Amino acid sequence: MNKGLLIVLSGPSGVGKGTVCSVLRHKMPELVYSVSATTRQPRQGETDGINYFFKSRDQFQELIARGAMLEYAEYVDNYYGTPRDFVEQTINSGKDIILEIEVQGALKVKETFPQGVFIFLMPPSLDVLKQRIVGRGTESQDVIDSRMSVAAEEIGLIRYYDYAVVNDEIEAACHRIQSIVTAEHCRKERFLANLPEAVKTAASEKA
Ligand SMILES: Nc1nc2c(ncn2[C@@H]2O[C@H](COP(=O)(O)OP(=O)(O)O)[C@@H](O)[C@H]2O)c(=O)[nH]1
Ligand SMILES: Nc1ncnc2c1ncn2[C@@H]1O[C@H](COP(=O)(O)OP(=O)(O)O)[C@@H](O)[C@H]1O
């Protein structure tokens, strides 16, 4: 059986990662979502275990020390990280999983899972990005300023990603991501792995 795809979706704060993922949940119900741990405070309406596993700094450091994190990063004064076991169990069971994480963490995942599918969600412009993050109304002015200055650095790391998807319009962005996942499922390597030996040899000789 083929392993599931490990899909990483990154992009600056406010670009629309959360919005795109919530629409994708309906369009791609078979896709599994990794729930991250974080030390940031829950926003209104966020639930522990659904949006994030909310942890104290001590608890988070204990998880790191136990090797329970596939990756983690410090982003604007808080820790964020991906619980390892859930990701490994999901892909080993043949299901696809999506991680919505920032760039430092994505680059660490790439070291462990170079075969992952790395997608960068781009804003139509930096002005639109600022309007979205301000419009969301969840962060103080200081935090918005920090996130905007991190955004420029993050966009500079796009070269490490396999795909860039502009989130100009939510439906269009989701459609692009669905197309990427479909294309990744059609990669010849996934078929070659399951071919009978004789056919596999012939197929790789011709490749
Ligand atoms: N490295 C890493 N980054 C994460 C993880 N979970 C969330 N993030 C990223 O942390 C940043 C801040 O997340 P959050 O405070 O929820 O703000 P929002 O993404 O703007 O709604 C975003 O870029 C997230 O994609 C994780 O498990 N690991
Ligand atoms: N394509 C889009 N067009 C217009 N507004 C959008 C679009 N995508 C997201 N938004 C809005 O931008 C704000 C930030 O989106 P969010 O999903 O919270 O971003 P992120 O998770 O990347 O920080 C939200 O208010 C959301 O409704």
Automatic annotation (TrEMBL):
It is found in: Cytoplasm. Its EC number is 2.7.4.8. The keyword Transmembrane does not apply. InterPro entries: GK/Ca_channel_bsu, Guanylate_kin-like_dom, Guanylate_kinase, Guanylate_kinase_CS, P-loop_NTPase. One of its GO terms (cellular component) is cytosol. It holds the Pfam family Guanylate_kin. It catalyses: GMP + ATP = GDP + ADP. It is an enzyme of class 2 (transferase). The keyword Transferase applies. Residues 4-182 form the Guanylate kinase-like domain. Its main location: cytoplasm. GO terms for molecular function: ATP binding; GMP kinase activity. It comes from the Bacteria. ATP binds at G11, P12, S13, G14, V15, G16, K17, G18. Keywords: ATP-binding, Cytoplasm, Kinase, Nucleotide-binding, Transferase. PROSITE patterns: GUANYLATE_KINASE_1, GUANYLATE_KINASE_2. Essential for recycling GMP and indirectly, cGMP. NCBIfam families: guanyl_kin. Belongs to the guanylate kinase family. This is Guanylate kinase. It comes from Paenibacillus albicereus. The lineage of its organism: Bacteria, Bacillati, Bacillota, Bacilli, Bacillales.
